[in-house]
Backbone:
């Protein structure tokens, strides 16, 4: 038994729209930690009150929750109050990164490239948004991940319906200029950028189904870029994480245009750890197998 890490809770499940994926992530992490001799126990906040963590003497927490109620600073705040160290980013960075709108504002204020956008509501001038951003437009809820409620709009008449779909998930909806190029994701572990992963989805449609369940999406890692270009993108990603205050581990998604211009899309502070997940894939290329990756993340658990 690995007693140095104490009694560990793996938080998974929860009640967000990403519960299904979180259950897969958490079970994989739990099995890996237990296999490595850690005294790890599964804990679903949708079924048990968080204060039980303190009562039952958990020494640290591995957060494998995705979406609201787990990745948005709320659970992190509760753990801070209980004095239980946890994995990943703190309260502020978790809340900020979960908010795609305010993430973009911080990136733009820091001189970092991200697609142009507009916030949508019932009073939006749909024609004006199309005129400003052009077509296609990507519409998504501000506070959801895993492509929940997201739509690629290719005709002006589709924009309002896309907003209505996204608004079922969140009162804040963002429309984003659609950037054509290679889709890349860039994990990081502590202060180290891991190898980039190139994502090639059928028809360029990297939606919820293709992310977690389909087998026809191709992932290239190494990504195939020249070493100097990959290093430049990794440096960009580490800066994007620093200005948001991220720590521990995470993953930034970006697009690289044909003429070599990168655009940051969003930051994930509690990425997936499923069989289709990208952080484990990248870590493996860097020499870290899944169990070693989980241990490394857990060892970095802290407060504040």
Residues:
């Amino acid at each position: 038994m690995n007693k140095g890490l104490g009694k560990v809770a793996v938080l998974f499940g929860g009640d967000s729209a990403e519960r299904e994926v979180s259950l897969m992530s958490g079970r994989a992490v739990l099995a890996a930690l237990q296999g490595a001799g850690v005294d790890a126990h599964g804990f679903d906040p949708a079924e048990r009150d968080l204060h039980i963590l303190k009562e039952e003497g958990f020494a640290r927490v591995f957060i494998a929750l995705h979406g609201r109620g787990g990745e948005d600073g709320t659970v992190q705040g509760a753990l801070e109050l209980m004095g239980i160290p946890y994995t990943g980013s703190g309260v502020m960075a978790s809340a900020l990164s979960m908010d795609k709108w305010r993430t973009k504002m911080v990136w733009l204020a820091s001189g970092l490239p991200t697609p142009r956008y507009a916030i949508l509501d019932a009073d939006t001038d749909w024609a004006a948004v199309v005129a400003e951003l052009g077509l296609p437009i990507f519409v998504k809820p501000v506070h959801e991940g895993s492509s929940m409620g997201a739509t690629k709009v290719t005709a002006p008449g589709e924009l309002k319906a896309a907003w209505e779909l996204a608004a079922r998930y969140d009162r804040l909806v963002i429309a984003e200029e659609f950037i054509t190029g290679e889709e890349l994701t860039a994990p990081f572990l502590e202060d180290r950028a891991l190898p980039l992963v190139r994502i090639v989805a059928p028809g360029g449609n990297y939606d919820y189904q293709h992310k977690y369940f389909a087998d026809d999406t191709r992932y290239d890692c190494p990504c195939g870029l020249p070493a100097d270009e990959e290093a430049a993108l990794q440096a960009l990603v580490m800066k994007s994480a620093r200005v948001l205050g991220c720590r521990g581990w995470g993953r930034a998604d970006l697009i690289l245009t044909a003429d070599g211009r990168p655009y940051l899309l969003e930051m994930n502070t509690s990425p997936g750890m499923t069989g289709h997940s990208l952080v484990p894939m990248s870590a493996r290329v860097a020499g870290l197998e899944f169990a070693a990756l989980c241990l490394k993340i857990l060892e970095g658990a802290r407060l504040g």
